[in-house]
Amino acid sequence: MGKGIPYLAGEHPGKDIDIVVTGNGIEIAQKAARHINPKTKVTIFKNFGTAMFRNDEYEIEFVGARKESYDRKSRKPVVEDGTLEDDLRRRDFTINAMAVSLNRENWGELLDPFGGIGDLKKKIIKTTT
Prior knowledge:
This protein has 3 helices and 8 strands; from the N terminus they run βαβββββαββα.
């Protein structure tokens, strides 16, 4: 099992960590990498507004929370800054729309605005809308 990262029995532990931040994900990734090791190389994906770095065997990727809306005349979404709930709302399924808080005031709290835990317990897959 890897360094305390839980996983389901029979599954392989993930080696990637996705962090959604309110604000600029690239800037936060750069600060986090410098804090861990000033020599850490940060890879920036400007088109997607994300940044990633490696720490030991893990890939840690940061992105700013965003929301999407669609014009009826286009299949391309209009993307703008958003809240964490906006970001979770654009996920496909309730079980993919959960997060764990990294904020001091509620560190480790499960954020589950669409009832993903209940759906996991029922062994069902539902959309967030």
